[in-house]
């Protein structure tokens, strides 16, 4: 008690500080990831409002009938279209033994996303479609946290904040909340990459296996894994802890889970269809054929009339991705570059269709763009503003199920 009747100062004891430590840690995490929380929440709410306004005011003046295919609630149904039907069918019935009359079959779609949705639906009573929306949104939020952490480690806090904002406002960002695999795949990619970077070999391989079972492009994680393993085994011994035999075993063992995952999926397809490579062979039913990615892009430049209108956005995005790849080469980030090259060039071997959607998950490119904008605040504001406006227009098109959004 102070002289003159002053108030008594409270002094926290060690036990009180220990009790409050989790709350302080939580408050610190919320402050650190505030851009993730605000970016995710505001962008998802904005897209939802745009979609509802489209249903209320735009659809009635078009000839497009609402197709309440996945949910009787319009605010939910708008998050599913095209490939969603394949995933819902997989969650309910598994892989079909025979292709349809048009040659298409669900063999092209990998099992992790629908299987996880089926499990959640069984436990919670949600429909498979509703479970997919839960998975997508939670996965996107978790992926943003990991991308922010990775960007802070690779670059700086400003780059991290901008990378998160870009992913939230980029045209096509609605895919991350839709019943599509992009969010789960992005989460698996970023989680596995962070583990590779930390040299947690077995954990990295296990998460990479989850990525492979989500999308076949998950095998691309083997490239940064191999690079990091080579560095650890042969190149960066100086100043690092001695390489123990157990770590060598871990490096070798970490390669196996993604390979086993792909092999297990192929064996399952063989048991259902008689063709272990059915997921490859069925691509022709969608008009996909494999070839040189650069010839397709150059042909589009020389003969713009040959680029279908529905693929124009993907064509532009493909060239932008190539440009960002060049900058990534100059930044000398070999792990990021290895993954970005694979995720960019391999899809382009099958043509430019849907590449704008595929590019959304190439997080190394977003880190590069964010880093370039971090030193140019005015340019960053302009780019984010333009992307946000375009995202609104694309959400209108998505809600109306126009093919330009595929």
TrEMBL record:
GO biological process: GPI anchor biosynthetic process
InterPro entries to which the protein is assigned, alphabetical: PIG-V/Gpi18
Single annotated GO MF: GPI mannosyltransferase activity
Membrane-related topology note: Multi-pass membrane protein
Pathway annotation from the record: Glycolipid biosynthesis; glycosylphosphatidylinositol-anchor biosynthesis
Keyword set includes Membrane: yes
Membrane spanning stretches: 33-54, 116-147, 201-227, 248-269, 312-330, 337-367, 379-402
CC per GO annotation: mannosyltransferase complex; membrane
Coiled coil segments of this chain: none
Name of this chain's protein: Glycosyltransferase RgtA/B/C/D-like domain-containing protein
């Amino acid at each position: 008690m102070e002289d003159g009747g002053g108030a008594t100062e409270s002094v926290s004891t060690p036990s009180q500080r220990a009790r409050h430590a989790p709350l302080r840690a939580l408050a610190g995490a919320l402050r650190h990831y505030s851009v993730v929380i605000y970016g995710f929440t505001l962008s998802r709410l904005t897209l939802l409002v745009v979609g509802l306004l489209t249903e209320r005011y735009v659809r009635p003046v078009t000839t497009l009938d609402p197709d309440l295919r996945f949910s009787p609630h319009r605010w939910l149904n708008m998050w599913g279209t095209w490939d969603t039907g394949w995933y819902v069918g997989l969650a309910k019935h598994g892989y079909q033994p025979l292709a349809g009359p048009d040659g298409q079959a669900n063999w092209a779609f990998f099992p992790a996303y629908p299987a996880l949705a089926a499990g959640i639906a069984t436990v919670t009573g949600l429909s498979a479609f509703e479970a997919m929306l839960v998975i997508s949104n939670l996965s996107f939020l978790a992926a943003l946290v990991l991308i922010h952490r990775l960007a802070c480690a690779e670059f700086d806090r400003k780059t991290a904040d901008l990378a998160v904002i870009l992913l939230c406002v980029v045209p096509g960002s609605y895919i991350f909340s839709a019943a599509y695999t992009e969010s789960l795949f992005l989460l698996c990619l970023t989680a596995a990459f962070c583990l590779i970077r930390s040299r947690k070999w077995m954990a990295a391989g296990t998460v990479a296996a989850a990525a492979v079972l989500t999308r076949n492009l998950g095998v691309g994680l083997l490239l940064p894994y191999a690079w990091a393993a080579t560095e650890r085994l042969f190149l960066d011994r100086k100043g690092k802890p001695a390489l123990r035999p157990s770590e060598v075993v871990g490096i070798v063992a970490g390669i196996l889970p993604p390979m086993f995952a792909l092999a297990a999926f192929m064996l399952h397809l063989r048991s259902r269809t008689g063709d272990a490579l059915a997921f490859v062979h069925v691509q022709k039913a969608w008009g996909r054929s494999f070839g040189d990615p650069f010839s397709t892009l150059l042909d589009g430049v020389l003969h713009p009339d040959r680029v279908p209108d529905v693929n124009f956005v993907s064509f532009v995005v493909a060239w932008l991705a190539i440009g960002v790849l060049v900058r990534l080469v100059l930044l000398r980030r070999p792990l990021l570059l290895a993954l970005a090259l694979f995720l960019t060039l391999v899809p382009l071997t099958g043509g430019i269709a849907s590449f704008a959607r595929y590019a959304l998950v190439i997080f190394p490119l977003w880190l590069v763009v964010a880093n370039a904008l971090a030193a140019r605040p005015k340019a960053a504001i302009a780019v984010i503003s333009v992307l946000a406006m375009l995202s609104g227009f694309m959400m209108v098109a998505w809600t109306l199920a126009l093919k330009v959004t595929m």
